[in-house]
Amino acid sequence: MFDLTGRVALMTGASKGMGLAMARRLAEHGANVVISARKLPALEAAADEINREMGRDCVTPMVCNVGRKEQVQALVEQTRSRLGPIDIVVGNAGVNPYYGPTSEIPDDAYEKTMASNVQSNLWLAQSVVPDMIEKGAGSIMFTSSVGAFKPSVMLGTYGMSKLALIGLVRNLAAEFGPKGVRVNAICPGLIRTDFARELWENPEVEKRINQDIPLRRLGEPDDMAGVVVFLASDASRYMTGQALTVCGGSNMWT
Fold it and tell me: Which of 33, 197, 199, 246 makes the best surface tag, with the fewest CB within 10 Å?
């Protein structure tokens, strides 16, 4: 049920952290994976690492700034040209350019947050879905956050964008479901990545782990990889429009 042999997967935000772990596991289960981010050297290093581990050329690096529509469209076109029709999409790229009250956010930071975290994923879905409709099958997933489920004085706009992303997932799932295309969101808790370093290096984090996380540890990048393989595979063939929370139990009541 988890065999992805011969399927083409396209990922954004995949040069390190959660994205790299996701790409590795998709390749491990047989997929041919395009990984994208803004910096080619990091992408090439990640692709070389996974290809060596798998003993085959199964990961291809491509540069893309998801905040630019023309680059997202070019990424999809290049993937299709090199590997064929796209079966799996993982929109993992995201930004958080502002830390502070939503009421005080500058316009440019607000617009960048919403464009990169929400609109870019709409562009990605619009570009890839014709391949999936033609096949009558496909899986699209976007990385949201548990921050979508509650307000925050300092990370509120980021959480707003991730809640909007879940709204996008639900609408796309309703629109494309009749064509056989599934769309889901993945909502990580606090994961030990560079992106979240300021949060997990906080001296209060140990107290938070002991009080708020039933599994009593932070998430690791590879903790997110299994759910991606699940959503990409036929094991989840009757699941769409969902927001899967992977948080060690910290948000079980949300």
Answer: 197
Domain ranges (residues) in the chain: 8-246
Closest Cα partner for 217 from 185, 178, 191, 180? 191
* Phi, psi dihedral angles at 89 (to 5 degrees): -130, 135
- Written as six digits, the tokens of 251 are 């948000």
Beta bridge partners of 63: 37
Judged against a pLDDT cut of 90, whether residue 146 lies above it is answered with yes
DSSP string, 135-149: HT-EEEEEE--GGGG
The C-alpha atoms of residue 184 and residue 149 are separated, in whole angstroms, by: 16
Question: What distances in angstroms separate CA 142 from CA 162, 165, 189, one per listed residue?
Answer: 10, 8, 15
Q: What is the pLDDT of residues 21-75, one digit of tens each?
A: 999 999 999 999 999 999 999 999 999 999 999 999 999 999 999 999 999 999 9
* Phi then psi dihedrals of residue 223, to 5 deg: -65, -20
- Nearest-angstrom CA–CA distance, 36 and 175: 27
Terminal CA-CA length for the chain: 30
**Partners of 219 in beta bridges:** 191
Q: How far apart are CA 58 and CA 23, in angstroms?
A: 10
Residue with tokens 């692709």: 47
Across-strand partners of 62? Answer: 36
Q: Is the dihedral of CA 123, 234, 13, 203 positive or negative?
A: positive
What residues are labeled active site? Answer: 158
Residue with tokens 């065999």: 3
Q: Mention the CATH class of domain 8-246.
A: alpha beta
